[in-house]
Design goal:
- The complex is a heterodimer of chains A (292) and B (323).
- In chain A, the strands form two sheets. Chain A has a seven-stranded mixed beta sheet with strand order 3-5-6-7-8-9-10, with helices on both faces.
- By secondary structure, chain A is α/β, with parallel strands linked by helices.
- In chain A, strand 6, helix 6 and strand 7 form a beta-alpha-beta unit.
- Chain B has 323 residues and is of the alpha/beta class.
- In chain B, strands 1, 2, 3, 4, 5, 6, 7 and 8 form an eight-stranded mixed beta sheet that branches.
- In chain B, strand 5, helix 9 and strand 6 form a beta-alpha-beta unit.
- The chains are: A alpha/beta (292), B alpha/beta (323).
- Chains A and B meet through strand 4, helix 6, helix 7, helix 8 and helix 9 of A and helix 7, helix 8, helix 9, helix 10 and helix 11 of B.
Chain lengths: 292, 323
């Protein structure tokens, strides 16, 4: 902003200006974060200790897939599944940007190759496979790679008789892969049928947000569906619904609590209790003795 | 402008109006103008051919929702024997946007299920413009499971803008209803043939679209999101729908090239809406042929092949192990 000819700058209260300046210079970058819900200013190290849950209002902030899995799994052993699989732009899709460039940019900013990470590991010694969507990778959208890794995860479960836990966070199908992305809904759902046929549990954990093609396939097909508090979960987005029905949406519409009320999920579990709750339920369904 | 014709069909509409006018004049006078009419009809034919030779994906999208395009009920009347419609999801309601019931294809009893748009304004509203709610998908599932129990093949007909984006649909678990259909359809022990007759709109279409044989009418579309929806998200302007239609490759021909669609059913010249009887005849022929092929398979092979088909819908690269 040029100071010389910006009249607005001149009439801004001097104190506000200097306040901004001092914040910019005196506080190290990224040490503070604003809670998107209560707008409380949070000290990052404290937030991290609290598993990215706002200590003031209990709002569950979005977290990267690797962090999610690290919080969930025992430290060792962990082996990644499907890391060798990468995206392909079969349709040469181009909107305002090329899909190829979007992939490259997403890979750079997240350090991941696509939007689903799958690890084989243990929770309190109980062996399982866990997957998590990386929302920062093109909105956690599901294309062929996500579908393929999900199916590989199921295959490992089938081969080794393991339970499968998936943490969803996704805007839906990846439009840039057009009908192939729609077909991932059918593929992942068909794979989950195999889990059922084999008598292996699949848990779906819904974290903010889960919409569209991911919601209308794998994410709603858990033997047990668990949501984090306050997550937005639905098929159609609120804006689309509002435009279609021309009606104000009810308070709390499509939040976890709304889904629990309407019978769509089994329970809402705080991030702090997630690991132990899932462990207990899985141990119950698989008749495993509880670790003390 | 004739509202029963799309913009690019207007020259055809004008020529046909002219022919009609001549006919009226001709029948009232002694002058023989049949030569003139024949000439114009010939011209109309070549005009239609030239317009339909090079349709853009966006024009095909418009044809797929043409106001006079044959709907599910139009096909039912023309292709099958007596149709006994079955209603209700046994849980909440009956959804008029999805119809289903038992009928016969030639002599074979079959379960048919499809989206139904309304023709009149009143009917459009009653059928919610072909946009199903959870009870529609649950009714479809109930009928499909019944078909499996009684060994009836399932024929589904896809023609929907998409699942209904409404408050009530969300409250009753739209996502779960669609997801469950996808899961259960993958293992049904009876042949499933899906035919896209108009709009194949996203999850709302796929929820009755998991199948052993997927066929599309020449001017039908099948996509993950409507061109308008895609354009407003990726281009931030619904006006870019023609670009989105192009980019998504949602036409029967393109999807056939990509290996997702097994068969493209040619439509009569000028589109299915120009000749419902002929369109229905062609669909029926394809159905009979596909069904005959599928019924030679054992149940085990059928379900196994269905899963393998699904697995093949994927484009990924694989790094070699040592990298």
């Amino acid at each position: 902003m040029s100071n010389n000819n910006n009249w607005l700058e001149k009439i801004l209260p001097a104190i506000r200006k200097s306040d901004n300046d001092s914040r910019r210079t005196n506080i190290p970058e990224g040490l503070w974060r604003k809670c998107p819900r209560c707008e409380g200013v949070l000290y990052r190290p404290e937030l991290e200790r609290n598993l990215e849950v706002c200590p003031k209002c209990e709002h569950h902030l979005r977290i990267p897939a690797r962090r999610r899995l690290a919080l969930f799994l025992d430290e060792t052993p962990q082996t990644e599944i499907g890391a060798d699989i990468g995206p392909v732009d079969r349709l040469k899709f181009k909107d305002t940007k090329k899909y190829k460039d979007r992939i490259t940019a997403a890979q750079k900013s997240t350090g991941e190759t696509d939007a689903l990470i799958v690890l084989r590991g243990k929770v309190n010694g109980l062996p399982l496979v866990a997957a998590a969507f990386e929302f920062n990778f093109m909105g956690g959208s599901m294309g062929s790679v996500v579908g393929e890794r999900f199916i590989q995860a199921v295959d490992v479960c089938l081969e080794n008789k393991l339970p499968f836990v998936c943490f969803a966070a996704s805007g839906g199908a990846r439009m840039q892969e057009a009908l192939f992305s729609l077909m991932q809904m059918a593929r992942t759902s068909a794979a989950l049928q195999k889990m059922r046929d084999a008598g292996l549990p699949f848990f779906s954990v819904l974290t903010d947000p889960v919409y569209g093609g991911v919601s209308a396939s794998l994410a709603m097909l858990g033997d047990i569906n668990i949501a984090e508090p306050g997550a937005l979960i639905g098929f159609a987005g609120p804006r689309v619904i509002e435009q279609t029905v021309r009606q104000k949406l009810p308070e709390g519409f499509q939040r976890s609590e709304f889904l629990l009320d309407h019978g769509a999920i089994d329970m809402i579990v705080s991030r702090h209790d997630m690991r132990e709750t899932i462990y207990r339920l899985l141990a119950g369904l698989t008749h495993a003795p509880l670790a003390s | 402008m004739n509202p029963n014709f799309l913009e690019f069909e207007q020259p055809i509409a004008e020529l046909e109006a002219k022919i009609e006018e001549l006919r009226l004049v001709g029948s009232g006078s002694k002058v023989n103008i049949s030569d003139e009419i024949a000439k114009l009809q010939e011209k109309n034919l070549s005009l239609t051919e030239s317009i339909f030779k090079n349709l853009t994906p966006w024009q095909i999208s418009q044809l797929s929702r043409h106001p006079r395009r044959p709907y599910f009920l139009d096909y039912i009347r023309r292709m099958f024997g007596e149709f006994d419609e079955l209603h209700g999801d046994r849980t909440f309601s009956d959804d008029a946007a999805i119809m289903g019931g038992i009928t016969r294809l030639d002599d074979k009893p079959v379960m048919i299920i499809g989206h139904q748009k309304g023709r009149s304004t009143k009917d459009k509203v009653r059928r919610n413009f072909g946009m199903p709610k959870p009870e529609g998908y649950r009714k479809a599932l109930r009928l499909m499971e019944m078909a499996e129990r009684f060994k009836l093949p399932i024929l589904t007909f896809i023609d929907t803008p998409g699942a209904f984006p409404g408050i009530d649909a969300e409250e009753r678990g739209q996502s779960e209803a669609i997801a469950r259909n996808l899961m259960v359809m993958s293992k049904l022990k009876t042949p499933i043939i899906a035919t896209v007759i108009g709009e194949g709109g996203s999850g709302g279409a796929l929820a009755i679209g998991v199948c052993d044989h997927l066929q599309m009418l020449q001017y039908s579309t099948y996509s993950v999101i409507s061109p308008e929806g895609c354009a407003s998200i990726l281009w931030r302007s619904a006006d870019k729908a023609p670009d989105a239609a192009e980019a998504m490759g949602l036409t029967a021909g393109r999807l056939n090239d990509l290996g997702i669609v097994d068969e493209v059913i040619q439509e009569p010249l000028g589109g299915a809406h120009r000749d419902h009887d002929h369109a229905a005849l062609r669909v029926k022929e394809s159905l009979a042929k596909a069904l005959e092929r599928l019924q030679t398979l054992s149940t085990e092979d059928l379900v196994d092949q269905r899963y393998k088909r699904l697995l093949s819908y994927s484009n990924v690269s694989r790094k070699s192990a040592e990298e």
